[in-house]
Amino acid sequence: MKKSQKVPAHEVRRADYKVPAFLVDQTELDFDIYDKTTTVRSRLHLRRNPASKGKNAPLILNGEEQKLLRVVVNGIELSKQNYALTEKTLTIEGVPDEAILEIESTNVPAKNTALSGLYAAGPMLCTQCESQGFRRITYFPDRPDVLSQFHVTIHADQKKYPTLLSNGNLLKKGKEKNGRHYAVWQDPHRKPCYLFALVAGKMDRAASSFTTKSGRKVLLEIYVEPGRKSETGFAMTAIKKAMKWDEETFGLEYDLDRFMIVAVSYFNYGAMENKGLNIFNDSCVLGRSDTVTDADIAFFERVVGHEYFHNYTGDRVTCRDWFQLSLKEGLTVFREQEFCGAMNGAALERIRTVSKLRSFQFPEDAGAMAHPIRPDSYEEIDNFYTSTVYDKGAEVTRMIQTLVGTKGFRKGMKLYLKRHDGQAATCDDFVAAQAEANEIDLDHFMLWYSQAGTPVLDVTSSYNARKKEYTLIVKQKTAPTAGQKSKKPLYMPLSVGLLDAKGKDMKGTFVIDLSLAEDQLTFLNVEAKPVPSLLRDFSAPVRVNYDYTDDELLLLMAHDTDPFNRWDAGQKLFSKFVLSGEKIPAALIDGLRVILHSPKLEAGTKAQMLALPGEADLGLQLLASGQLIDPIKLYQARQRVIVAIAEGLQDELWETYKTIEKRLSEKASDGQARGQRSLKNLCLFYLNKIVPEDVTPLAVAMVSSSKNMTDKNTGLDLLIANEAPMKAKMLASFAKTYSKTPAIMDDWLAAQAAARQPDVLKTVKKLMKHSAFTLKNPNRVSALLGMFAGNPFGFHAADGSGYLFIAEQIIKLNKINPHSAARITKPFLRWRDFEPKRQKKMKAALKLIQNDAKLSPHIREIVSKALKA
Ligand code: PHE
Ligand code: ZN
Fold first, then answer.
1. What is the rounded CA–CA span in Å between residue 632 and residue 794?
2. Using a 6 Å cutoff on CB, does residue 394 contact ligand 1?
3. Helix, strand, coil percent values for the chain (each to nearest 5)
4. How far out from the chain centre does Cα 287 lie?
5. Does any ligand 1 atom lie closer than 6 A to the CB of residue 306?
6. Helix, strand or coil for residue 639?
7. What is the model's pTM?
8. What is the per-residue pLDDT across 761-776, written as a single tens digit (0 to 9) for each?
């Protein structure tokens, strides 16, 4: 037997849910912070759960990676015989129905490289408890349906840790002997322990305020590592926008006197919605106008909004168990998208969302770990913070809004929040509230929560000229996914419009309810044979097949009143020519030229319309046509279309570039300016494919003398792409300038790891030794290894060297930070999608990982699911 098979997989199943045996009404925590260890003393006010069936069930607490010192029940210290301690649990029999449990334990934050629990993030100590980090801090029923009021005291050396933060309100603070001090925090809102947070250290603070709609003044604070206060401006503005938007849109007013954000430099995810004390990966909030890119600015607003919106959808109403994760994440991503759409343009936001969904979620939904937005089982919950749970979850939420209307949806939200305020709820609860508030039946709709896979709609049409009737026949099917063989038809809204031969919208938008394997609908009084505009605004997370002619797609691209479908018609044309290898017709070039010149379209929209679908999306389309992927061939096929477009539009691309370049200030960074910059730089990307010698000097100037970070990065990308002789020198001087700014160095690492060039592995190996890189920081790992893992010339190099290299890094990283390691393991899940030679090599690399004796549950789950027949 192989070592890796010795440990049986520990599977948690949704069907096994049981209410907790004990509730914790109040949690008092006392943190005594010292350089080496932190001592945690807890006092839990326990009460047997009246809803629990096991009347004599023991108290089982979760606890890991700490030293247990003392257990006291109702004032009596237990001897070791009176409790059972394992590596993961503390079990106490015979606890009275009401009891005060006191526990003392220690942990070592400085050694916590997994970044879960209490850990050292550079100069600060901070916590990350979602989903199961609290059990690394103290013994506790670490599950989201145990809600408790938290009262937290922190003691630490005053010089080393002048700032001591936790959730809620600061009750008091003061000095203690030996140069120490303390702070006492109380959170009036009951919450599960995954929303607990603590931060201690030397920090700078930016403060402002927001007056809520009922006139309460809320203190807004952003805490950063010393010296970074000047980087808080974007986030501060974003908080205020988010607070205002949530009041205006959903009537939701902030519910504490103080809202805090702390930016830390070591963090596994983007950010965390701890009640009243959000903790952010600094890469998602901090930057000055001279250090951020346009993408950063938009992203900061998005993430700040997302975490803030969790205050109601996540914190006030939380999840009963981790299978319900999409209840808070799908809904909050949806709210975030609505917010960003309102701030920056709805169509722009919708297009961004869908292209992300197609690039990440669709592949996931077709891979070896495909799961419904509410999974049925998991081995490691960290592996299920996925695009499916988040982004498809948001699409499912959006479908409800489409079905009941915006007003109805808000009514449903109100009912949901009222009914479940202060509770741990389920996805069923949310849908039930929407159904009741709107008096519709959503029972069939619930299938979206349990069925995985991307549905495909095969649409055909017929026109009866005599009766003036137009009929659409929609057949839906979902291919089998891992562990889910048979699929049922889903209930979904299909938004449809009809264009006449001149591109005029004949009837506006119809929202049709689909629910059968085959649905049919007939439009009356249709004067002439129309061109259907299907799935307007991407009304459901599906793929649509309809046998459009090129002319029909060009008509939609030029004239559809639905901006999303204008874009999508272009995407369909691009995909077709990438995959078929056919010559790009002049009509397509002409159509793109019209778009480029259109005075009505915003620059940002033009840039989206001129951009090809990504390699991942195209790969899936290739699979749908029954072929396997050769990533380099696919890359070349995509390049062929890019070159054809560049050649066809050369003059216009130059002209567009020059016009924008002349009038766009380097400092401008509002939505419009960002759109213009993206179009200008897209023009350069195209031109770089055909006249690199003309683009190179511009790129050199961008890197060396532009003050705009987006332009600087673009310059680097261009030089890397055309292997300009200046490349090495420019990269080196860039690195010298920004060696002290990790976020910028991440872009520098990523740009090189993304190079579509055969020697990229050599480059990446060298960069791993660069002082800007460390395996210990997940941001560095994503920038270099994550980017490499998506590179057809790197990860997918035909000789298998990329697979081996990533496998070796996974084995190393597995010991440091399993979550970070898991992220670069997931690309292996798709090994079956590639041509046979690569399949074999990917499988061999997976086996190599599997043979490692000390695999974390994270990696073990991914590897075993990948290899499962
Ligand atoms: N709940 C966070 C969010 O989506 C993500 C997160 C998950 C952060 C787990 C840390 C740990 O907003
Ligand atoms: Zn979230």
1. 10
2. no
3. 45, 20, 35
4. 20
5. yes
6. helix
7. 0.98
8. 999 999 999 999 999 9
